[in-house]
Amino acid sequence: MNIAIFLAKVVSRILVTFALILPLCVQAAHPNLVITAADVSQMRQAITKPGRFSNAYSDLKAQVDLQMAQAINVPVPKDGGGGYTHERHKNNYQLMYNAGIIYQLSQDKTYANFVRDMLLAYAQLYPTLDLHPERKVNSQNAGKLFWQSLNEAVWLVHTIQAYDLVCSALSAQDIASIETKLLKPVAVFLSEGQPSTFNKVHNHGTWATAGVGMAGYVMNEPEWVEKALYDLEKSGKGGFLKQLDELFSPQGYYNEGPYYQRYALLPFVTFANAIENNEPQRKIFQYRDGIILKAIDTTIQLSYDGLFFPINDAIKSKGIDTIELVHGVALAYSLTEAPGYLDIARQQDQIILSGDGLKVAQALDQGLAEPYPFESVAFGDGNDGKQGALVIMRSQLAGDQAVLFKPAAQGLGHGHFDKLTWQFYDQGQEIVSDYGAARFLNVEAKYGGRYLPENESYAKQTVAHNTVVVDETSHFNGDVEVGNQNAPVLNYFETSSLGTVASARIDKAYQGVELKRTMALVNLAEVEKTIVLDVFNVVSSSEHQLDLPLHYLGQLIDTNFSVSVSTDQLFALGAKNGYQHLWLKGRGLPKQGLAKVSWLNENGRFYTQTSLVNGQEEFLFTQIGANDPNFNLRNEQAFIRRVKNNKQHQFISVLEPHGEYNPGKEYTLEAESQVTTLGHSQRGEVMLVELTIAGVSYLIAINQSEDGAIDQDFQYQDQSFSINGRLAVFALNDDEE
Amino acid sequence: MNIAIFLAKVVSRILVTFALILPLCVQAAHPNLVITAADVSQMRQAITKPGRFSNAYSDLKAQVDLQMAQAINVPVPKDGGGGYTHERHKNNYQLMYNAGIIYQLSQDKTYANFVRDMLLAYAQLYPTLDLHPERKVNSQNAGKLFWQSLNEAVWLVHTIQAYDLVCSALSAQDIASIETKLLKPVAVFLSEGQPSTFNKVHNHGTWATAGVGMAGYVMNEPEWVEKALYDLEKSGKGGFLKQLDELFSPQGYYNEGPYYQRYALLPFVTFANAIENNEPQRKIFQYRDGIILKAIDTTIQLSYDGLFFPINDAIKSKGIDTIELVHGVALAYSLTEAPGYLDIARQQDQIILSGDGLKVAQALDQGLAEPYPFESVAFGDGNDGKQGALVIMRSQLAGDQAVLFKPAAQGLGHGHFDKLTWQFYDQGQEIVSDYGAARFLNVEAKYGGRYLPENESYAKQTVAHNTVVVDETSHFNGDVEVGNQNAPVLNYFETSSLGTVASARIDKAYQGVELKRTMALVNLAEVEKTIVLDVFNVVSSSEHQLDLPLHYLGQLIDTNFSVSVSTDQLFALGAKNGYQHLWLKGRGLPKQGLAKVSWLNENGRFYTQTSLVNGQEEFLFTQIGANDPNFNLRNEQAFIRRVKNNKQHQFISVLEPHGEYNPGKEYTLEAESQVTTLGHSQRGEVMLVELTIAGVSYLIAINQSEDGAIDQDFQYQDQSFSINGRLAVFALNDDEE
Prior knowledge:
By secondary structure, the first copy, chain A, is an alpha+beta fold. In chain A, 33% of the residues lie in helices and 27% in strands.
């Protein structure tokens, strides 16, 4: 270590000497990364007039003033994530960035001097540092200021922008110190110093290439930009462009899901802006048919009521107001001027002090916002868009309803073993739920704030989701590598005014077992209701136990079959693969016919799942919380439909929102399910579901043909019907029943 | 029955004949109950101008128009509460009332005719009715239109007003039919026909006297008014005035708690208005030092963040926007013009179409609202205000915090066995919770929508509350009569800028055991925190097991002692008195010193209860849900501090809100308790609590003297202190520790 420090000092002294001759910063126009000199001149005008932008400026200035009243603190790195020095260095880069902005807008040198002094403090500290003491053993990703280099790259992305904002105010000597002792060494450390991370087609690589590439623009190192774009060897096998090729599907869906997508977004948005401002000839926003804009837009589509759909390792309170997406939406509006983005910006309620942020602020001031067009859509997964899909179905007929159906790929290390699972949302609430991640972010008492052990033992396991579990083992036997290599297949997706339907299958989740699920969110205009239809086919060469859980949020209200409840003792349902975390509270074996389970969500609406059962589906009622010695899990409810010793089985059900419970106003409406009949049959490739609800009989036809033959005719009760497309809904004459 | 119907028909025919000669309605000015002719003329003006009042008028008119488009439906009574005919008759009286208002304001006879036609339909039906088929066996309170006469009285209160609003538009013949076949028989049935209910000093009596008294005004039967005011014998032992004397404390607190208080309020407000408008010389609003206004105001004080404190059999979603309190607030504003009532009216967001409602609407339009002054206050219980007290403590120092401390009387049949219990609220959320009532109002599948069996077996029991349980039996051994006769004693209450303190005792909850609890919500200005101090003394002549539960809402985060958790099976904690409904999830025996339990509420704040323990207090961690075969209970958490074989024990603890969990913005602040020392000692009658929190040491002194000697001097660590009042808070110099 001592030799390393000594060498670093020698090198930096040589660089300082050289730099004194040729201060690099002042050669080019500054700022010119995300914010340009032209932006600054418009922003300076805007802050003189009342409106959202000047409000945002005043707010940020007040906040920066408060923080600048404290002494500059650049501590020797000591703590891991969440610890003091970790948080301090995170605060510092944000503060430098903010103070840099305020300097540009106020033209008050105090702010530039503050950034300078902090940069100089870092320039003094950095050459003395070896790798961080809290780094993981044998890690390829150790940082110096932080325990992992990911944070160091994020530090550089912010700090290089802060430097760009103030460097025109700095002396040649300070520029030399800062560049040669700090910014260049950091950039070199994050590129040449960690080739495996820098070249990796992965979010960590995006942050590294963004930081290094922007450092190249600011400090006039065009080679760094080339390496950032095409990898260290400039081979094109890695680097920023390859990341744009590989990490998103053609529609802009990010393999790990929205929680990680919004995080991944920021370096893409930031570096792309810098590329556009420095080298517009690269046409970065046209790259791959506008993939950056698509990635932003898809992130918005992946939300419900302001929160991201919590698939994979997601923390549920994360939503569209996340700062990464505030930047993304500002860019999206700036690129398109589509008024729907203003609707999102309005909900974000945060204005970025940038050129793009100014456009958003002024457009909002002018009242140009229009509702963002949320859609029913299947996002093809994988870089080719063919590795399964994430399907969103929406309806506004009877509430603000959404189904998330997930025949998506595994999604790497944060992915869950939940092929073909689904979730349901209504009236702003989660109804059929996904546990999300088992984690209390940064809460030291909860396993240091990291992912809890129960994230592996429960949250990732198949039984924690709303999809079939074979023989109490998880999909791919819980092996993420196998999962990554075997995505489900989306058979079809279609959306129309009748509703949205999708079907998908996978035969690799379990050896010798094919899982096929067809789901539809169907609008029944005559009764002003929307129902979710779910037909899950399991076909196997040998006999298995099949479990299909439904995790719901709310209070169980009723079942139309008797349930034998464990009243004075409870046992765990199983021993492993997540089953050890479920208390078995009761079980019931409904007779052949319709089995109903009703619950009441805290939105005050009732939900009934009506299943068409053959007399052999047992219903197990469970609560999460067994084998949880540290009270780490939320105690949520589920019921699991179970069949044993079956080679094939079809789980058929309808989910029906109904009624209203309003004890405040003292009324209760339609607390009982309105579904009175449910039938299922097949006419060639057309699946027929007969449903009587609220007195109206429906025939729902779904064309399952695989060869794309879309038009089908069929007979039903001596009548002729035809279906043109995937989904048809016929309201039958009641009298004929 | 046939004879009864025959006689009724004969009587009504005689009355009709008589009435044809002298139609009574038109003799006096109409309307003249809650709404007067003078009000109507102002209201007619108001609806011609834009504003809240004309909006409310348009809304109601549209709603009435929609309902009037349906055929009039006056079904033969058949169903009990929640059933079809029950709900239909409830809708009918509301519709008649609303249509009557719209008639007066629009002067469109269509509305008067609609009310007339419905009244005539009732006049045809009513004489044919015997007692309701769904009445309770041997009930004194059976109705005819409804299963209980309470609903019938509510029907009359509304219907007589509807009639008053339209009668000037009716023909003499219709007036005669309606009065003689319907309104007079109903009034006679509810008074002479049910003397025990009519004369009873009870909420049911209030509705009956209000209905009959108003019928007396409208139909010129001054004797009925006298009887309504003084009871059927005009003795003054019952009737409306006696109800005002007995049912409220001098401060206007209603013995059954806020959930029932707001319900009780409406007939008081309504009939008092009618008395004032017809016989101002009675000075009804000055009666008992303005008790009606006090009752309205107290109902507001008994709320937090818009919802009533859920003591006794309360359903939690009931709050200040309840229609009864909308009427109450309109009256309160009309009587006082205090701008704080407008703040409440604004939150209620509902304008009554009445003279008082007009005043509120116009004042809101003018922007006159000011924050309603919520206070720390002890509401003396019982008609003399000396049967214990319901104590509310509030602080705005560090959030919007409230303690509800309940040394109140039993509160009759809906009361819970929860003497000296408490609840805590912060940032709009329930933190230390009360189960409230176990009931799903009007949800047929849940025990017909009535109180669930678990309301008796769990919700009312002592262990369901945050107070001491002796030997696993409930207070008064669960006997409500004994409870009604033995209220706790409020020793003292004091509020100042330092905080609020109260102390209370009861020695009748358990034979030979004195329970004494001192609670304080203390502002610690130096650290900008507010803590709840809780010292619970139990003194007994013989040895007992003492349990002190704390029911909390949120996720357990940490304990500073080891907890042995039941991981793969759970058992019920006990066999009866509510214990059979608690699963025992874990237990721990902290060493002498400080025992901490921390949890995270969904408001994103952490809460830590720090207890000063002697090494013999065991902590039991429980979850509600055992012996719950119908999934009727919410699965909430508690921990129970338990000592065994003790003659006396002191439970000492501090509850501390701290930090913030914000995974959406990805930060967590102060997740750990800041309390580092907690000590307790006695200096004569002064109780001293030493507390170090966030590095500052405090000495909190509470003067427990019973004789009113308020000034006390004492020594602590060689320093002299004096306390002038009940509560003193000294920030000690840290260096001296």
